[in-house]
């Protein structure tokens, strides 16, 4: 699976990492619903860190489509709210 962090690049990630990412995605959704900026920052940072630590940089010379697109680390609650689908940032 290819995951893009906007403004940063793409990462190759094994499908088994989705379970951990989904838990962090749920925390982001809860923070947005509650309007809790501190919880949102922590959850978003954790999600992006998990992608970076569990993934490897995708070859920049290839033009492969991303399976998931995540917001940049400096995204606001309102910006991420607009990106959320019915299943959050990460489907499943």
Descriptive key words:
single chain; 92 residues
Description:
It is built from 3 helices and 4 strands, in the order E-E-H-H-E-E-H. The chain has 92 residues and is of the alpha+beta class. A 4-stranded mixed beta sheet has the order 3-2-1-4, with helices on one face. The two termini are 14 Å apart.
Number of helices: 3
The average pLDDT is: 90
For the terminal residues, how far apart are their CA atoms? Answer: 14 Å
Poorly predicted spans: none
Instruction: Provide the helix percentage.
Output: 40-55%
Number of strands: 4
Following the backbone from N to C, one meets helices and strands in this order, namely: EEHHEEH
Strand content: 5-15%
The Cα radius of gyration reads 13 Å
Main beta sheet strand tally, sense and closure: 4 strands, mixed
| Coarse shape | globular
Write the layout of secondary structure elements.
Blueprint: E1 2-5, E2 9-12, H1 18-34, H2 37-54, E3 56-57, E4 68-70, H3 77-83
Parallel strand pairs: 1-4
Antiparallel strand pairs: 1-2, 2-3
Helix pairs in contact: 1-2
């Amino acid at each position: 699976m290819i995951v893009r962090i906007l403004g940063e690049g793409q990462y190759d990630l094994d499908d088994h990492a989705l379970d951990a990412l989904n838990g962090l995605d749920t925390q982001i959704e809860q923070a947005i619903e509650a309007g809790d900026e501190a919880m949102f920052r922590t959850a978003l940072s954790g999600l992006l860190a998990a992608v970076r630590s569990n993934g490897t940089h995708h070859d920049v010379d290839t033009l492969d489509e991303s399976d998931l697109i995540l917001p940049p680390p400096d995204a606001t609650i309102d910006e991420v709210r607009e990106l959320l689908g019915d299943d959050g940032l990460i489907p499943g």
